[in-house]
Design a protein that fits this description.
Length: 638
């Protein structure tokens, strides 16, 4: 069959929203889209990981390639799988549309979702949006694994750790950790690295290995290794809902990291159900590998697009997720991303749910002719509420991630002045390195889970001794300068958890399966580098008071009144602000010499310099200004 043909889509596209297992008043209904199947059998189990089937039933083929079975019994808590025969071959598969599963996701489970709701779930809602979105990326296990975090031992590394509102450093009772620390820092959105069911950690022995989780198995089921009992399918659902509810109550919105561009293996439930349909292949039949993971999902095919869209809406509606970060969004087609944006807007209000992703891929992909991908080339033509990570800011500030020892503006590089100025206005209108239509499309960041941490990049490029725990003093100065730059650029702010206290992975740039001892958040380090934390805290608090930087509209770039390069490796920019300060003067000096600033007439206040971001006190008045070497200065005109 030609899966790319319009004829196939017309014949087999199914619009129903009832695929998977559904409980009804009369019993249980099972529906599986498998248009190429010759027969489909349903098997029922008492356990999610052991024992034989207690019943096997044949499904009936219906319209549009949907197979159906109805049972006059509510099978809540019963596990199941399918035997799908296509082209004479019979393969066992779990249900791609499953909403619950057993241990390691090998069997699907029928679930009464209402029974998994925590108390008060129907009243749960996200906190009101703040003037700025501050996105903080965390991994569930990394967040609470370290003993220093002060979390209950039996909840460390689990969803339940996020239900602890007021943890403190284990030997310093006044130093907050966890959610209390994030509240103090000023975070507005917690972005969870993958929490769907993934395949690279054995849920029966979760402490024996570690992984970031970019290995999807069951897209619509929470990961079991983070639950207190992965053998019971309902437990992981309830505990993830409790996590979201707790974050909402503590004042945070929740973003879900989703990976729809590839699956853990080529031999996935999708492939076993409809062989060849859900993946891209080259003309010689070989699998496309633009993801670098051995397979690329064919998002442009109608039922694959429906599967992804249904999944996003399910997480938004059932789990109250407030946004979605798309891994390798550059492999997904623009039509799908526009449909996702429109559907979320229709259900929840314009822009209420954040949508953004990585506008790149690991290599070329075998997309259908005429399909446009949601990458950097097409970003400016997408809905302005579809965002992307801006590598233009990242690489200009600290140097390219692909070259460990190449510096950027803050760590000794030359020729970056123009790129820094583009970064201030979120690269809107620039086409060479990155181009966005509005700051609403730009995720301004310096570090994420990928590549070296900001701290490690600075150590590698600035400290001859390569001491990641106690580096040369210039590393701390460069950290402050880097933070001051990207936190005064337009766009939405994003930071890797622990960046603000100098998080180190000892120079490793890909720790996706490194030991948890290397990946964990070291809460003791937040105390050791508390002055750096306070600097970040002040910049975040200050930013929320500056309309010039929080402006996400297409007109935001016009706030830039003047910019210049007064000296080598030094740039300044004057912006129209409004509010308490009518104008802002930003100065970034990465040189080894102080630079005098020219101030226009009026009353100016010092909002931040190399020592402090003055978040806790009145801003000093200044008559003249000199920005120090390896430092930033922010001035506001009354």
């Amino acid at each position: 069959m030609d899966f790319n043909s319009k004829a196939f889509a017309r014949r087999f596209h199914y619009e129903g929203n009832d695929l998977g297992a559904r409980l009804t008043e009369a019993g249980t209904e099972f529906r599986l889209w498998a248009p190429t199947a010759e027969t489909v059998q349903l098997r029922l189990f008492r356990s999610g990981h052991e024992g034989e089937a207690f019943e096997t039933l044949a499904l009936d083929r219906g319209e549009k390639g949907v197979w159906f079975a109805g049972i006059n019994q509510r099978l809540d808590g019963v596990y199941y799988d399918y035997l799908v025969t296509a082209a004479g071959n019979t393969r066992r598969t779990a249900d791609p549309y499953a909403r619950a599963c057993g241990l390691n996701g090998q069997r699907s489970m029928v679930v009464d979702l209402a029974a998994t709701d925590p108390e008060g779930w129907q009243e749960d809602k996200a906190p009101a949006r703040q003037p700025e979105d501050i996105i903080y990326e965390v991994h569930v296990r990394e967040f609470s694994w370290a003993e220093s975090g002060g979390f209950p031992e039996h909840w460390r590394g689990k969803y339940k750790a996020f239900c602890c509102a007021d943890t403190t450093l284990f030997d310093r009772g006044s130093q907050p950790t966890g959610l209390a620390y994030l509240r103090q820092l000023g975070v507005t959105h917690v972005q969870l690295m993958p929490v769907y069911d993934y395949g690279s950690v054995d849920e029966a022995h979760p402490d024996d290995s570690f992984n970031w989780g970019y290995d999807p198995v069951n897209y619509n089921v929470p990961e079991g290794s983070y639950s207190t009992d992965p053998t019971r399918g309902e437990v992981r659902i309830r505990e993830l809902k409790e996590l979201v509810q707790s974050l909402h109550r503590q004042g945070f919105r929740v973003i879900m990291d989703v990976v729809y561009n590839h699956t853990y293996h080529q031999d996935s439930w999708l492939e076993r159900t409809v062989p060849g349909y859900y993946y891209r292949t080259w003309t010689d039949g070989s699998w496309s590998n633009g993801s670098g993971c051995g397979n690329d999902v064919a998002s442009e095919r109608s039922m694959c697009a429906k599967y992804i869209l249904d999944s996003v809406l399910y997480w938004a509606e059932e789990y109250h997720m407030d946004g979605f970060r798309f891994d390798l969004m550059g492999l997904l087609d623009t039509d799908l991303m526009e449909r996702i944006r429109a559907a979320l807007d229709e259900r929840f209000g314009r822009g209420e749910k954040l949508v953004f992703g990585e506008p790149w891929a690991a290599g070329p992909t075998a997309r259908k002719r005429g399909v446009r991908l949601a990458d950097k080339k097409t970003l400016a033509g997408l809905d302005p509420e579809i965002g992307a990570f801006c590598d233009g800011v990242r690489d200009a500030v600290k140097g390219p991630v692909m070259y460990r020892e190449k510096p950027g503006f803050v760590n000794g590089g030359s020729g970056f002045e123009k790129r820094i100025l583009h970064s201030i206005t979120a690269w809107c209108g620039e086409a060479r390195n990155f181009r966005a239509a509005a700051p609403s499309q730009v995720i301004t960041y310096l570090s994420s889970h990928d590549d070296m941490t900001l701290w490690d990049k600075l150590v590698v490029t600035m400290d001859p001794q390569q001491n990641f725990d106690d580096p040369a003093p210039q590393v701390m100065r460069a950290s402050r300068l880097a933070a001051a730059i990207y936190m005064t650029c337009q766009g939405r702010l994003f930071l890797l958890s622990g960046e603000e206290f100098g998080r180190t992975k000892q120079g490793e740039d890909n720790t996706h399966k490194a030991p948890i001892e290397l990946n964990r958040l070291d809460w003791e380090r937040a105390w050791q580098n508390r002055e750096l934390v306070e600097y970040y805290q002040g910049l975040i608090a200050l930013r929320k008071q500056l309309p010039a930087l929080c402006d996400k509209t297409e007109q935001a770039g016009k706030r830039l009144l003047h910019s210049q390069v007064p000296a080598a490796r030094c740039v300044t920019a004057l912006l129209e602000n409004g509010g308490r300060w009518s104008k802002l003067l930003l100065a970034y000096n990465a040189s080894s010499h102080p630079v005098e600033l020219e101030l226009e007439e009026g009353e100016w206040e010092l909002l931040a310099d190399e020592r402090s971001s003055f978040w806790w006190q009145e801003h000093p008045a200044v008559q003249s200004a000199q920005v120090q070497p390896m430092a930033a200065m922010i001035l506001g005109k009354r």
